[in-house]
Design a protein that fits this description.
By secondary structure, this protein is α/β, with parallel strands linked by helices. Helices cover about 40% and strands about 15% of the residues.
Length: about 375
């Protein structure tokens, strides 16, 4: 704000931290969180916009190779984006989308069922678009295994990491993911409506044949202000930008990312694992006590298959329980038809708060 007051728009070039280079401050921290090279990251827009932009580059249907594998009942950011983008290209989503569901009577999707869908459609598969963590159940997926299967079948893979970035260990470069998008107002703590992020694998940065929508802010930096004809993209993931960024959103995001840097991601993940184990222990104790007919934990208990989130399915009176928890100052999340999601986050929640929650839940159920 001081820089804006002193320099106005010239703050992009002057002051203690010229805004033209501010983006580099963000990708340095994000690279550790998502497991990427800083040059493979770009901070821009919000999740749905970025998914559409990535589809322009990475969903290129040709002949019979036009199918997309996704999870059934994915978060609307994915569902609505896929539906409208496919229609925009002149296809019928019902013919293009291959949705993988949990087996009857189960809540979580089995990895072998994802691999079977890839094998069954390998000759017509163009893309896998998948969430890193299922928003409803809290299940984390084997993204590395999915990437290997997609590439072996001649397809690409993209990830929606809205519920995964800042929550679980990610290694996008190591796993050979093609692209990924996420928001930063959940576990990345950058504020409501915060700016989103994108990963683009480095092998695409200098590909002259890749399709993309152009915007002036992604133009080659040294000659950007010449305003000349002919689009020359920046040779990093920044080459997918469109518009001048909001420096206020950048500043908010930077403040949050420095907290991750100070705490260190390994410490965050270690505490998260301990907190989740404690939460599962308390919830299972409640269920064994006398409430197995009322609720079930639908989040996988294997530490490799979940992050902070734990989802409880209530067979009856779930909304009543949710409202009573809220009245006692517990901020959970309700999802129809009967799921309460809770997430003890290691950066700002404590073990005593987990105990308080479990005690309150037991009293409400009684």
């Amino acid at each position: 704000m001081k820089q804006w007051a002193d320099y106005g728009v010239e703050g992009f070039f002057h002051g203690t931290e010229p805004w033209l280079e501010y983006h580099d401050k963000l990708t340095k921290h994000l690279a550790v969180i998502v497991g990427a090279e800083p040059s493979e990251l770009v901070v821009m827009n919000q999740l749905s916009v970025n998914l559409h932009l990535m589809m322009v580059s990475f969903y290129r249907p040709e002949g019979k190779r036009n199918k997309i594998i996704c999870e059934a009942k994915a978060f609307p950011s994915d569902q609505y984006m896929l539906e409208t983008h496919i229609k925009h290209l002149g296809f019928d989503p019902k013919e293009i989308l291959i949705e993988v569901s949990p087996r009857p009577g189960e809540y979580n999707i089995r990895h072998e069922d994802i691999l079977k869908a890839v094998a069954d459609h390998r000759e017509e598969l163009a893309l896998i678009l998948w969430g890193g963590i299922n928003y409803y159940t809290g299940q984390a997926f084997d993204m590395k295994g999915m990437a290997a299967a997609a590439h072996e079948a001649g397809a690409k893979i993209g990830l929606d990491l809205a519920h995964a970035a800042g929550n679980i260990r990610l290694a996008l470069h190591e796993w050979d993911i093609d692209f990924a998008c996420w928001c930063s107002y959940k576990y990345l703590n950058s504020g409501p409506g915060a700016v989103g992020g994108v990963f683009v694998n480095s092998r695409y940065h200098h590909d002259p044949g890749i399709k993309r929508f152009a915007g002036w802010w992604r133009y080659d930096k040294p000659t950007r202000f010449n305003m000349e004809k002919g689009f020359i993209p920046i040779g990093t993931a920044e080459g997918w930008q469109l518009s001048t960024p909001s420096i206020l959103l950048f500043a908010s995001h930077y403040a949050a990312l420095t907290v991750f840097s100070d705490a260190r991601m390994n410490n965050i993940l270690e505490k998260s694992s301990l907190m989740s184990s404690y939460l599962f222990f308390l919830l299972n104790d409640i269920i064994r006590e006398q409430f197995s007919d009322k609720l079930a934990i639908i989040t996988p208990t294997d530490p490799r298959e979940h992050g902070c989130q734990v989802s409880m399915f209530f067979r009856e009176d779930g909304r009543f329980v949710f409202n009573r928890l809220a009245e006692n100052g517990i901020f959970a999340d309700w999802r129809e038809p009967g799921v309460i999601r809770i997430a003890p986050v290691p950066l700002y929640n404590s073990f005593s708060e987990i105990y308080t929650f479990a005690d309150c839940l037991r009293q409400v159920l009684r």
